[in-house]
Amino acid sequence: MTTVLQHPAYEEERLQRVAEQLPCRELQAGMLLSLMGEPQHYSYPSIFIYGHRASGKSHVMHVLLKELELPHATVSCVECISVTLLFEQVLLSFFGCDAASLLPRSPSLSDFVRVYRQQCSHSPAKETRYIVMEKAELLRDTDANLLPALLRLQELVEDNVTVILLSEIVWDKFRPNTGCFEPLVLNFPDYSKGELQQILSQDRHPSYSAEFYSSYINILLGVFYSVCRDLRELRHLAALNFSKFCEPLAEGKVKETDTHKLWRNIEPHLKRAMQTVYLREVSSLQWEQMQQMEEKETGALRGLSAHTHVELPYYSKFLLIAAYLASYNPARTDKRFFLKHHGKIRKTKFLKKNEKTSNHLLGPKPFALDRLLAIFYSVVDSRIAPTASIFSQISSLVTLQLLTQVSHDDQLDAPKYKCAVSMDFICRSGFYIRRTKAELTQKHF
């Protein structure tokens, strides 16, 4: 049930419309209304709002300022790549094009304050003006005096203006080393599973009942909630897979209440979709086309792992194969597999308990950097020297999350890694090493 917001300065109907657009964020909206106060009163100079991605920060501010018809300027720090664009956006929103044209070609902070104060003398604020800075963490990379000036802009321009910073990091990591005016800090927590269920269930398809779509969202969250809490990503996944969920229902094979059969039909598709969470290499149309190809051609592209579509440099592919061999093979077998003259190997009649289990089921094991390079130089076709390019490609594989560094950053002498890709990716990399392919599929596992 929607919580009714209350504020003496605004009509109850208008606040009700605001609450309906902010499900599960009524508490934060009420706190913001309390901090903002009445429109004609001076508000606090700066407010810092932080929370993880897709926790409703921008949406709550946009709905409040739009529905309550408060004068505001929304500035994206991603789009405003220079302070000139930032100053122009603020002046344009509050005073029009003529005020923005008064800025010099490369304006300083003093120029912005001067023009702002000139415009305030002609049109003083009857209500509090709000400057909303989205992705405000990027302000840390600008001039050192910009952030402290924005936090006390109300004092500098002598106007009823409040700067609201929206960020994904906490204020302790945001605060300048030189010190600054402390803003009011407000946290937007992550949505709980029940809140995500409530929000996503509002996007139901008009052809189906609310209970049916709610059960679909419950299944979706049961799969993805442990790895993804991003509301936008979950909404995208829900829209992408709903047609597949309804397929048996449209064919008349099951009923809406047959949840178990519907789950068995959608389970393999959700598992494939889990491999592409946060990765948008394919559009919704391409996703459907690739699913149709899977059904027609059994041997063709299985799964939609985004890693299978990554084109890597030449030596990075060899490094990844070497990492895979190092993760899934015991270190004592390196001499047998990668040396021509490894000597006589004694055959044993029994295996240890752990060796009877497939290494695929046990998962990848960590390996040292020197072992990775030793296998790499063994499987690569050409003779190459250990250069900085090879080490930088290892760092790139870690950045792409194809390798995982498991050692601490202070262990510079012997860093350890794990391979984070499957055997399918190794086989689909676009090339095969004749000497190691048979060992991968027959000897090693």
TrEMBL record:
UniProt xrefs under InterPro entries: AAA_16 (IPR041664), ORC5 (IPR020796), ORC5_C (IPR047088), ORC5_lid (IPR048866), P-loop_NTPase (IPR027417)
The reply on keyword Lipoprotein is no
Which GO terms are recorded in the biological process aspect for this UniProt protein?
A: DNA replication initiation
- Give the superkingdom in one word: Eukaryota
UniProt main location, coarse: nucleus
- GO cellular component terms listed in the entry, alphabetical order: nuclear origin of replication recognition complex
Where in or outside the cell is it found? Nucleus
Q: Which UniProt keywords apply?
A: ATP-binding, DNA replication, Nucleotide-binding, Nucleus
Function, in words: Component of the origin recognition complex (ORC) that binds origins of replication. DNA-binding is ATP-dependent. The specific DNA sequences that define origins of replication have not been identified yet. ORC is required to assemble the pre-replication complex necessary to initiate DNA replication.
Subunit relationships: Component of ORC, a complex composed of at least 6 subunits: ORC1, ORC2, ORC3, ORC4, ORC5 and ORC6. ORC is regulated in a cell-cycle dependent manner. It is sequentially assembled at the exit from anaphase of mitosis and disassembled as cells enter S phase.
Query: What name goes with this protein?
Result: Origin recognition complex subunit 5
